[in-house]
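User: Please predict the structure of the protein below. I'd like the answer in C-alpha cell form so I can feed it into my own downstream comparison script.

Assistant: Understood. Taking the following sequence of 253 residues as input:
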Amino acid sequence: MQEQFTNEKQRELHKKLHQDYYLTCEQYYIFELLTVAGGMMGLYTYMLRGAVFSNAQTGNIVKMSAELGQGNFREAFYYLIPFTAYVLGTILSEILPQKVKRTKFIRWDTLLVGIEIAVLFLVGLMPLTWPDQIAQVIINFLCAMQFNTFRQAEGVPMATTFLTNHVRQIGISVVRIIKHHEQEAEARAKMAKHVKIILAFSAGGTIVTALAPSMGQYTIWLAMIPLSACFCVMLQSDLVYEKAMLDVTPHGH
C-alpha cells in the first residue's frame, strides 16, 4: 500500500514537472530532423512512385476531383488509395500509444521512428517495376502516423510532413510584429521556427530530387539518416534520462 502511494505521488510530481518541461520527443531539433525525413518521403513518392503526395492529402484530393470533373473515374479512384492509407495510419497512431505505454519500456514516439526506419529500408528494396501503390500505401501510412504523433515542438504546434500551417503561422507572425510591438520578440522567435521547418522540408525534398536519378529505388534510404539520429537520441532518453517519465503524455495530445 505504501509503495502504491509512493508511485502515485511520483507520477503526480512528474506531471507537475512536465508542465514546464519538454520531453526529448518534443524538442525542436527532433522536429527539424523529422521534417527533413518528411520532405524526403514526400518527394520520393512523387518522383519515383506514381506522382502522389504521401505526406499531405489535399493535393491528392485536388487531383482526384480534377479527374472526376473530366469523367476519368478510374484515374480518380486511384487517388483514394493514398487517402485511405493516410486515414488508417491516423487511426492506428491513436490506438497504439496507450498499448505501448503499458509496456513501460520505451515511448510510442520512439518506437514509431524505429518502425519507420525498418519499413523504409524494406521499401528501398522494392524494385521500381513493382506497382507504385505498394510503396504509396506504406509511406502514406508512415507519414500519417508521424504527423499525428509529433504535434508540438516545445509548446508550438508543428507538422513534420506538410507545410501549410507553417506558412499560415509565418503570416500571423508578420502581422503581430507590425501591429503588436509588445509581442514582437515572441512573434519573431516563432516565425523563425516555422521558417526553419519549411527550409528543413525543402532541403529533404531537394536532396531526394537531386539523387533520385542515380539512386533510384534506394533513394528512400536517405530518409533513414535523420530518422536514425532521432531514434538514437530518443531511445537513450527513454532508457536513461526520462525513464521515470514514460507515462507522461507529450503536449498537444
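That's the full C-alpha cell string. Confidence is low (pLDDT under 50) at residues 1-5.
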